[in-house]
Design goal:
The protein has helices spanning about 1-5, 10-20, 25-35, 45-60, 85-100, 100-110, 155-160, 175-180, 190-200, 210-220, and strands at about 170-175, 205. It is built from ten helices and two strands; from the N terminus they run H-H-H-H-H-H-H-E-H-H-E-H. The chain has three domains: about 1-50 and about 60-85, Topoisomerase, domain 3 (Orthogonal Bundle), CATH 1.10.268; about 85-115; about 145-240, Orthogonal Bundle (Recoverin, domain 1).
Length: about 240
Amino acid sequence: YLKKEMPSLFGREKKKEELLMRLPEIYTILQREHHISPGDFPNVSKMQVGQQTRRGARKQQVTCCFCPPQDMLQHYDFSKFPSLKMKLIESVDKMLATKIAVLMAMIREEESKLPPPMVSGGAFEGSQDGPFRHGYGEGISAGADVEDWIVSQDKHRYDEIFYTLMPVNGKITGVNAKKEMSTSRLPNSVLGKIWKLADCDCDGMLDDEEFALAQYLIKIKLEGYELPAELPAHLVPPAHRKDRP
């Protein structure tokens, strides 16, 4: 984007300064166009610091030598940035839509071979049971002691979103799910973990219950709670419980 906005001959420095001033706006444009989570962008103030320092020095009419750190945009010639490789991006999107299921299955197979971490005996005996343990009934453990699937409380809202994402045969692709999940402003690393938990049948797509679960997990994370390493039994969507041991 920055390269595209640069003039071919004259006024490059002035345009560069203008683009640095507009960096928050440019971040928003790129988030919307490419469905990138805000958490995956570098700190905007840090990227602008070179430009801000130089402008502040001019206002005070102070002459100084300013050498910005290597990671500041002021240091770079925008016109020499490499062009966006759309074919590469399309290939990655295709991989997310079709190959992710295979990767998820491999990860779960490896995790199933690991012994469950546990501490027992002495003061820890029975500490996993009862309503008085830390965090009981909160965050990811909410709904553990009720019969109804807790996600169903808000499923009507999640369904409205789901059917705008063009489901085919009752499922949406990873690409379409990513567009909606990215609006949460969570980093892709967190959204990837949520995808792994929500894709119960590891087919690389989400049905309406799996999508509702993903939205519920996003809500839990945004409320400040940690995500589990494995999906608790009470959060498994009803239609997928028959597939679980």
